[in-house]
Amino acid sequence: MKIGIDKIGFYTPHIYVDMNKLAVARNVEPEKFTIGIGQDKMAVPPITQDSVTLGANAALEIIDQADKEAIDFVIFGTETGIDHSKSGAVYIHHLLGLKPNARCVEVKHACYGATAGIQMAKGHVALNPESKVLVIGSDIARYGLNTGGESTQGAGAVALLISANPRIMTLENNSVSLTADIMDFWRPLYSDKALVDGKFSNEQYISFFQKVWEKYKEETGMDLEDFEAMCYHLPYTKMGLKAMRTVLEDASEEVQERLKEHYRVSTLYNRNVGNIYTGSLYLSLLSLLELNDDIKAGSRIGMFSYGSGAVGEFFSGILEENYKEHLLVKEHKDLFESRKEVTVEEYEQIFEKTLPTDGSNIELDINEDSATICLSGLTDDMRQYVNKMR
């Protein structure tokens, strides 16, 4: 039985800051951001968006009535959850109007959470072939103003519908994982900003990729020429290329050029959104699938997932016939084109707006937020969400 990705949805906030202008404001050469780390624009989440609303908005564009009847499992991968106890998946379940007889859980392991969710979803569908599982990777990368990590912030979500007989990609069963207890990136419970050892994290990312790739080759007998393209978790778009370059010399020049060109295409969405943690790998996959003009059905796409702390995994998928017909290319083009640029000063003001942590009530103005699903405030320590379509 084929199991894999049947639909893919995506959402990012309606405002962004230009990385050239941010560089100038930080007295940094713009090329350090646009070429050095490979970022052009950074999504800026207003206070009316959090990981729940981003995920719900991403799912909203792909879920129809038939899906609502079939979805019996919602897996919410995030490292920016909004409650230590209640799962964000429950809020999303309600906001989407899914049937009550569905499991809902939140999965956390840094940027690896959505991948873990997909593997769980495959097992569930294997046992329940008529079921569909909604897997969401949604995050807000937040390091702080004038910090070393500021240029790798971002916000957004990718929603994937996992089912039998998928129309976009069948996920192959071969995969290799690796776990090690390291401190390359973390966020203590008392902090709303992440801590990172940047140099160490980059080294570990590359090391994890090399180890899982070598093990994958050993177990499957496959090599680079068996892949049409490879997608990577992208905290910034140059990171995946650094890892890929360490193994490219094993391939012919033709294969190298093909993989590098498809890698470039796979980064275009991420270049204009920034880091979305759990969703970054799948935003890269979406960019590749929607923007390529030559990848045919039957092609194998490799995927490297990395979550600091750390867990890495390499796995693959085969593209289905007419996969392009089931992608929302125009909708995502419109989403990018409709965004509004804010100045660096406006971005800083938005960044500093946070929800009260002392139990105070607050009502938020959602009229300026073009999203269908928004956070409208806090009442008695409970978040209030609004679906404008209801």
Automatic annotation (TrEMBL):
Q: Which InterPro entries match?
A: HMG_CoA_synt_C_dom (IPR013746), HMG_CoA_synth_N (IPR013528), HMG_CoA_synthase_prok (IPR011554), Thiolase-like (IPR016039)
Q: Which CDD domains match?
A: init_cond_enzymes
Question: Has the keyword Aminoacyl-tRNA synthetase been applied to this entry?
Answer: no
**Locate the Hydroxymethylglutaryl-coenzyme A synthase C-terminal domain: which residues?**
180-252, 255-353
Keyword Transferase carried by entry = yes
Which residue intervals define the domain Hydroxymethylglutaryl-coenzyme A synthase N-terminal in the entry? 2-165
Q: Name one Pfam family in it.
A: HMG_CoA_synt_C
| UniProt keyword annotations, A-Z | Transferase
What the entry lists under SUPFAM superfamilies is as follows: Thiolase-like
Which PANTHER family does the protein's record reference? Answer: 3-HYDROXY-3-METHYLGLUTARYL COENZYME A SYNTHASE (PTHR43323), HYDROXYMETHYLGLUTARYL-COA SYNTHASE (PTHR43323:SF2)
Instruction: Return the similarity comment.
Output: Belongs to the thiolase-like superfamily. HMG-CoA synthase family.
Spell out the protein name for this chain.
Hydroxymethylglutaryl-CoA synthase
Species in which this protein is naturally found: Oceanobacillus caeni
